Amino acid sequence: xxxxxxxxxxxxxxxxxxxxxxxxxxxxxxxxxxxxxxxxxxxxxxxxxxxxxxxxxxxxxxxxxxxxxxxxxxxxxxxxxxxxxxxxxxxxxxxxxxxxxxxxxxxxxxxxxxxxxxxxxxxxxxxxxxxxxxxxxxxxxxxxxxxxxxxxxxxxxxxxxxxxxxxxxxxxxxxxxxxxxxxxxxxxxxxxxxxxxxxxxxxxxxxxxxxxxxxxxxxxxxxxxxxxxxxxxxxxxxxxxxxxxxxxxxxxxxxxxxxxxxxxxxxxxxxxxxxxxxxxxxxxxxxxxxxxxxxxxxxxxxxxxxxxxxxxxxxxxxxxxxxxxxxxxxxxxxxxxxxxxxxxxxxxxxxxxxxxxxxxxxxxxxxxxxxxxxxxxxxxxxxxxxxxxxxxxxxxxxxxx
Length: 401
Description:
Layout: H1 4-16, H2 19-55, E1 61-66, H3 89-96, E2 102-117, E3 120-129, H4 131-136, E4 141-144, H5 149-153, E5 158-161, H6 163-170, E6 179-182, E7 185-193, E8 208-212, H7 213-220, E9 227-232, H8 238-250, E10 258-262, H9 263-306, H10 308-316, H11 321-354, H12 364-390, H13 394-399
Parallel strand pairs: 3-8, 5-7
Antiparallel strand pairs: 1-9, 1-10, 2-3, 2-6, 2-9, 4-7, 5-8, 6-7
Helix pairs in contact: 1-11, 2-9, 2-11, 2-12, 9-11, 9-12, 11-12
């Protein structure tokens, strides 16, 4: 039997004789591997970002949300697709009066709108928050001030802009004291928020406009709110607070009309959903690996046909069927592994480039999985052509034209 190192050398030389065909054959594997790594990194980045956002609220924060969360019920929707929430400011007042261990109680209402100034505009998320919600979210002003409870009670048209939004609208100019248009209404800028971490899917605080809750209700023409944040005295008080809030809201609302969740459970539920999404994205991208495998098999079958006389000659001078089998199998594996290496590099670089716009996380398991699958593809789809080559009759192969 020919030494495996010699067979490997022959395989590489054969591939190098047809560089263009070899690269085009690897292209399916390259695209598949890079797509798996890129899509998984986006899913993992999204999961990391959302986890960080909720963890920043603290372990002692309880969220009240409309609908039955986490039981497949989802959120109730109206005919226009907008969320229908039966939560109101009256519920906020009642929860606030429950007393210890209930601490800060705050409400939010979010939507999207066009924010413009002097011909420049940006379509962004608008957050209607009670002043205490800003404290709960650890938001503060880098320039100017944050709006207060008094501004909220008076439904004043004041706004705090995220840093990126302020820069896009005003450039290097100080926006405090200037007026912007949100929707069709004028708002006075009273502050610019501190830079808030890295952006990701979901709400980027740096491109965000925060306005008083009651002002947002008037702007959107609604009396409902989207969520209520309840801060417990400490982490150990969370179960008690959840029980108290459920009991209070249960006096007015049906059980499936609201959910009370602590941040840990919320993170766990969201991570489960995002984990499934990440796997689905990776699975979809992995289909292209199968397509790449079919391409390798087709090219190797063509190669066997083209090199029939060569195979016959090698057998005639003493090469065993196993030598021919290993050579063609190694060629297929080299194509797959070569494509896998290039795909890993391109996928990682793509994730790095996208990290400037969204949070991405390249995981070791996505690299190992995609690289392992690419190797398996080479073996599986290389077996048939290699077996065909090894079974050729040397006499008939030498006669082949």
